[in-house]
Amino acid sequence: MALLRCESTVFPAKVGAFTVSYQKRSELVKFNHCPGLGFLHSLQHNNGKLRHQLKCKITARKLCQSQTFVITSELPQNADFPKYYSKNEKKPFPIPIVELRRAARERLKNRKDKPKGRGPPPRKGLVVKSLVPLAYDVYNARITLINNLKKLLKVVPVHACGWCNEIHVGPEGHPFKSCKGKYATLRKGLHLWTNAAVEDVLAPIESYHLYDRLAKRITHYERFSIPRIAAAVELCIQAGVDIPDYPTKRRRKPIIRINKSEFIDADESDLPDPVPEVPPKPLLTETPISQILAPSNEDEKLLLAEETLAAWEKMRKGANKLMKMYPVRVCGYCPEVHVGPSGHKAQNCGAHKHQQRNGQHGWQAAVLDDLIPPRYVWHVPDVKGPPLRRELKSFYGQAPAVVEICIQAGAAIPEEYKPTMRLDIGIPSSPKEAEMVV
Q: Where's the APO domain (predicted)?
């Protein structure tokens, strides 16, 4: 067991999260749990000396007979990759079904003696005024991200498999046998790499555009008469963004609900005529691919990468806030997304065992990765170094495709993506050296 001699002073330190039990001045202090120093157990019978520089921050709480030091870590630790769900299994609920039923019973219990009509403004047909600027920011961040990715793809090589939806960012495609497309067994799982486009990096998740988000659900026979647009754009429209090509109904009074599925609009004749409001921010437009110019030098490339990474974070964080107020649904069997209080009735689900459901979608609450998929790719530790090796696959990390493109263009690595990138793992130089790793 690793022991550490501690004096009755507070010394600056920063290590992984563990608890130190404080005793008297001359006694020893034991670490109850230290994931970052687990290898010390193998050195307890070694006579050699171990010297390791620790950078930690120790906070002392109340002085008493048993004093506790709380040590918090800011250093990135390794994390598991996002779980891959097979097409033969249903995605789990973001909140367990038992918790959903318990919360529903609590709502019914608390609503018993209260008047009806309570709920957030979107449920009453209104727009949350405080979230309108945020919706414009999310929309403009998405346009900025698309335009910048078109420029970065001219200087950063990105490859896409011609048989499956896997992509890779680097000078050449990775050698891993992970293709699940057509004729994959004949190719022994190897990918057929081609040049990637923006649609390969940003997955085109579309949903139906709703003129009235509180209207009746879209039927199976209306599935071709209603336009489909990007799900993130539809979320921004319902949150207050006005786009002339996609009109939507804006109510100025809350609806009068008759029952759970029926309501009538309030009389707005006593209100003055609506005046066209000036948008808080002008809307950006996508630049055609023929007008895209690649960055001319390294400084411009670096600034473009940092701007792209900032737009990616702004879009995801803003969309996550909007989803807490404006519900988004996703099918548990396929990637179909619907922005609205309840999913549509179109019978176009072709996932596993769709015949048993008559093509109906299994709607459930969506998370941010359903609306904006990150598309994880393998992280290349050194772009100018040797390519990835098939035998060392377990030593490589992963990062979202947009983040990996910006990193290879020169941007700094964001802290939140470091755990899955496995930056603190030493990569062996050969398979023989990898076999020696315990």
A: 160-245, 330-415
